[in-house]
Prior knowledge:
Blueprint: H1 3-15, H2 22-32, H3 36-42, H4 44-54, E1 63-66, E2 75-79, E3 85-89, E4 96-99, H5 100-118, H6 124-140, E5 146-147, H7 153-159, H8 166-174, H9 187-193, E6 203-205, E7 219-225, E8 228-236, H10 254-260, E9 270-272, E10 275-280, E11 285-286, H11 298-313, H12 320-329, H13 334-355
Antiparallel strand pairs: 1-4, 2-3, 2-11, 3-5, 6-7, 7-8, 8-10, 9-10
Helix pairs in contact: 3-5, 4-13, 5-6, 5-13, 6-11
Amino acid sequence: MNIREATRNYERWLGRQLPLLPADLARKHERMAESPFAFLRATYYRWVQLWPEVCPELVAAPAILAVGDLHVENFGTWRDAEGRLIWGINDFDEAAVLPYTHDLVRLAASELLAIQAYHLPISPARVCRELLAGYAKGLTHGGRPFVLAEHHTWLRDLATNELRDPVRFWQKLTSWPPVNTSLPAGLRTIMASTLPEPRMDYQVVHREAGLGSLGRQRFTVFAEHQGGWLAREAKPLVTSACHWESAKPVPVQYAQILKRSVRARDPFVGLSGKWIIRRLSPYCSRIELADLPKKRDHGKILRSMGRETANIHLGTPAKTRAIVHDLTDRPARWLLAAAEKMVAATRADWKTWRQS
């Protein structure tokens, strides 16, 4: 099965679970041709097909509740229940039980592709060394959330730089086109219940965000409240693309991975029926590489990404010792070799997609 067939079959499977938006899906197909990095982010369904074929030696590694669609732009910030600014992985739509190696290889492969897309001054070998160093340290130290207060001040400075200016954020969000159709049954009540006051006046817009979920419904409400803007977003939750070729029903793992991970949770993120509801604000959102200042210690960021990945994998504590042993037994450059093979497979698919 080539990438064109895989895309048609996956979208047919996805369309049986939720309504798809043809215009957004067409936009996704266009953006998939932009670069191998964009293509990787948009085609997790293809990754799960290729992964066991390209990296068969990693499939038998200890399995944990994993992020699945992990990449270098799946990190962001949010506020916890105490109002503290937290940094970490912010999207678990594709969470599934997978070998721990899966998340690490995908994260490393995404960074290798980002090196070219963003002209990053770091070598592939160092990328993998930094990720593994952070991951191993996180496992052996028991995990710890990234609270950007008295700790990780360097990361707080990166996350709150001028490129994430609140004025820019709200101007962009309020410029999205309004939703002219009625909301799905029950969603208006769900969204209204997340706002600070009953019967608030608000607007609903259709926001384009991310690549993997582009083509699905996404509703964002925003309102003025006590002198400033606030926003909530709802997007549908479906079975992870890890299981799109499986004939058996598989439970959604989103709530489980949030509950079990070493995490300072965002109290505004939750599930209501088939919807994921979350708060949006300048510092409750994903961080794109383009939003980071040019002068930064990229190796330090990668070590932190490795540690945050360990925070998630520690949510399966029975496997921690087995993972540590497995890491010790692997060749020194195993992650680099696997990431480079997956990058090569991704580039080949991307070229085929562009030609089509």
